[in-house]
Amino acid sequence: MRSELSAVCLVDDDPLVLNSLRNLLASDGIATCCFDRPESFLAHIETHPAAVVVLDIWMESMTGIELLARLRAESPQTRVIFITGHEDPATAFSLTQAGASALLVKPFEDEQLLSLVRRELRSTTRSGASRKRFFSEILHFVRRNCRTKVS
Hints:
It is a single chain. It contains 5 helices and 5 strands, in the order E-H-E-H-E-H-E-H-E-H. It has 151 residues and is α/β, with parallel strands linked by helices. The chain has a 5-stranded parallel β-sheet, sandwiched between helices.
């Protein structure tokens, strides 16, 4: 059974980067789940969907682009922010086409990442509230207009 959207997930095979990102987000009160292997992250989201993922593009066992494709199949509502040490316009375009929310090139300012994560968290909250309101309105309509008698 899938639970509600969890906090922000961080996926990077560099433990120093992973720790730095976790500490940065924690300093802003943002809860994180950290993964140093893409496979561990994929296992996690089977039962704990993520609202936002901060994802490295270049990892040893699987690229971030491959992971994004698998994530989209499992959790299409998840917002994805990529980080990379290599600026490449073609890759940036491909990521945008594949549904990435943003791409940050290292080194970046702390506030850039915090701002993006906050924006994406607000976005998922708004879309979830809109969906809930939409289904509530449908349920109200059905109850009001589609009464059937059962004998």
